[in-house]
Amino acid sequence: MVSIPPGSALGRYRVIEQLGRGGMATVFRCLDPNLDRYVAVKVLPSYHTEDPTFVGRFTQEAQTVARLNHPNILRIYDFGEDKGFTYIVTELVPGGDLQDMLKGEPLTTEKVLEFMGPLAQALDYAHGEGIIHRDLKPANVLLDQDGRPILADFGLALMLQTATRFTQAQQAIGTPEYMSPEQASARTRTTGRTCTASG
Question: Has 135 been annotated as catalytic?
Answer without folding.
Answer: yes
